[in-house]
Specification:
Strand content: 35-45%
Radius of gyration: 15 Å
Structural class: alpha+beta
Strand order of the largest sheet: 1-7-6-5-4-3-2
Oligomer: single chain
Number of helices: 4
């Protein structure tokens, strides 16, 4: 298994952050690594993420876990589990203070070693995502 992750402390409520995380048409406005997100971010839905890390290619992912203002998971990959990516977004409130945001994507499957070598380093885009989410959620409050 391989993974990437990032975190941020956001001065906004989990509900406010959730509103940003589930507003697919607005992703490009705050996540500089995303060209666009097609579809509706809702339980059981499949969305298509167009990222700048791999221009011209859409990544279809299914919303497999959806607990409003707490946790959401997107899963995608190749048939038969040859390669799979699972991204989990977690929001943890700190009482009446800020909210801790954490995002982790885990990659598995028999083709992982081959695909991992050809993947760009997603660490910077994960950091951009966390910082963009923080700025957007704090600006909206």
């Amino acid at each position: 298994m391989k993974s990437y992750e990032s975190s941020a402390t956001i001065d906004a409520s989990p509900d406010a952050i959730w509103a940003v995380l589930t507003d697919a048409p607005s992703y490009a406005a705050w996540d500089s690594g995303v060209e666009r997100v097609e579809g509706t971010i809702a339980p059981g839905e499949t969305i298509k993420v167009h990222s700048q890390a791999n221009p011209g290619r859409a990544f279809p992912v299914k919303v497999t876990d959806y607990k409003p203002a707490e946790r959401m998971t997107w899963s995608g990959g190749m048939p038969l589990g040859l390669f799979k990516g699972v991204r989990t977004f977690t929001l943890v409130p700190a009482g009446t203070g800020p909210t801790r945001f954490h995002m982790r994507e885990e990659y598995t499957g028999p083709l992982l070693p081959l695909i991992w070598r050809s993947m760009p380093d997603l660490g910077p885009s994960f950091e951009q995502f966390a910082l963009g989410l923080k700025a957007r959620a704090e600006e909206a409050r």
